[in-house]
Amino acid sequence: MKSISLDITKAAQFLSEGTVKAYEPAVKAAREALENGSCPGNDFLGWLHLPSEITPDFLKEIQDCAEVLRKNCEVVVVAGIGGSYLGARAVIEALSNSFAWLVNDDRKNPNILFAGNNIGEDYLAELSEYLKNKKFGVINISKSGTTTETALTFRLLKKQCEAQRGKEEAKKVIVAVTDACKGAARAAADKEGYKTFVIPDNVGGRFSVLTPVGLLPIACAGFDIEALVKGAADMEKSCGTDVPFEENPAAVYAAVRNGLYAKAGKKIEIMVNYQPKLHFISEWWKQLFGESEGKDNKGIFPASCDFTTDLHSMGQWIQEGERTIYETVISIEKTAKTMLFPEDEENLDGLNFLAGKRVDEVNKMAELGTRLAHVDGGVPNIRISVPELNEYYLGQLIYFFEVACGMSGLILGVNPFNQPGVEAYKKNMFALLDKPGYEADSKAIKERLAKEN
Ligand SMILES: O=P(O)(O)OC[C@H]1O[C@](O)(CO)[C@@H](O)[C@@H]1O
C-alpha cells in the first residue's frame, strides 16, 4: 500500500539552512509528551491510539446502525457543529459524486444533509420544507449535548420526524452521538430510547472524526469505514515515537510550520486543493489547527483556498500581497475518472493544443505553474501528495493532521486540546437572550449596550 507523502523543499528554502532539522529535539519531546501523557491537555489524548484500538465489533455496531438508517431513510440529517460535523462532511464530500444530490433515480445511498451548524432561519425553514415529503432520519451529534445551534435544530427535526412518521417509527431513525451521561442530547436519547453512541471523554470534538461522530454519518453515506480506520492506523505507525524525524511526515510538518511562523514571520497558512471535493477537508483542518493553536495571543491563522477557482479571486493577493503567508497544497496524484479534451475542426477557442490531453494534465500543470509563481513571489510551499481519493488515504491524511497538530501546538507552547476562547460569544448570546442563570450578565450587557448607543 502506498502512503501520503510530504515535500517541504519549497518551504525550507525560505529558512536558513538547518532550521527544520533544529526543531528535531522539540518535535521529539512533543511526540513523547503526547505518548506518555505528560503534556498540557493530557486528559484529551484519547485520539492518539484510537485508530489501532478500534475493534471490528465496534465498526460492525456502527455499520449495523448505519444500515437501519440507510434502509429506512431517503435523507439523513446530521445535526452537529464544529468537530461534531466537519470531519464527517469532509470525508463524505471528498468521496461523493459532486452531483449525486441532484440525481433523482433509484439512489443506493440516502442523501446526507448537515444542519445544526448555523442559526439561519431561512436555512432551517428551507430544510424543513425540503424534508416535508421525505422519509428522513436524524443523527444528533454533540459532545457537550448543550450546544445551542445543534440543540435548537434537533428540537425542530425531532418534532418534524415524529409528526411525519409517528413517535414510535421516529425512534428507529433518530440516533444520538453524545456524552455517556450528561447533556440535553443524552437526556433526550435516554428518555426516548434512541440508539446511542458515546463520544469518549478523552477525545475532543475536533479530534473525533474517527469515533462514531464521523464514522456513523460516513457509513450512512455508504463509504468504507474499515478502510478509513485502516489508513489512520497505518499512519499512526508512520508517526510513532520510534520513527526517525525525517521519516515521520507529521513531525516534519510540525517542524516546518513552526519554523515558518517563528523564523520567517509567516503568520497565515493557506490550505490549498485543486479538487473542489476537498473544500471541507480544509474546513475540518481549519478547526483542528485554529482551535488548537490560536490562544495566548499566538498561533498561525489557518485559511483555505480552492484552486484553480480562487486563483481568480485570491490569486492576486497571494502573489503580491503582504508576505506573511505560506501554502500547504493537498495534491491528488490520480483522479478517479478520465476525461479527454476533444479536437475541434474550427478551433474557435484556440484550445486544440489541448486536444487529446486529460483534464487532469491541465490541472496538474496549473498546480505546478502556480507553485513556481507563488514560490517566486515569496510564498513558501508545502506539498502533501495523496495517491488517490479513497477512504484509506483519507484515513491517513486525517491522522497525519491530528498528530501533527498535537505536536505543533506543543512546540508553539500552548495547550492544543482546550478552547476556552469560544465561550465568550456564547456567554454574551445567552445574556442577550435572557437565559436563566445569566441574570447578572444580562443586566451588565444591557447596561453596556445602552451606554454604547
Ligand atoms: O459537540 P459539541 O459539544 O456540540 O461541540 C461542538 C463544537 O463546539 C465547540 O465546543 C466550540 O464551541 C467545538 O470545540 C466543538 O467541536
TrEMBL record:
Protein name listed in UniProt = Glucose-6-phosphate isomerase
The gene is pgi
Q: Does the keyword Nucleus apply?
A: no
Family to which this protein belongs: Belongs to the GPI family.
Which GO molecular function terms does the record list?
glucose-6-phosphate isomerase activity
Q: Which domain of life is it from?
A: Bacteria
First-level EC class: isomerase
User: What SUPFAM superfamilies is this protein classified in?
Assistant: SIS domain
Q: Which PROSITE patterns match?
A: P_GLUCOSE_ISOMERASE_1, P_GLUCOSE_ISOMERASE_2, P_GLUCOSE_ISOMERASE_3
The protein's organism comes out as Xylanibacter muris
Function, as annotated, reads:
Catalyzes the reversible isomerization of glucose-6-phosphate to fructose-6-phosphate.
Stored InterPro entries: G6P_Isomerase, Phosphoglucose_isomerase_CS, SIS_dom_sf, SIS_PGI_1, SIS_PGI_2
Keyword Cytoplasm belongs to the record: yes
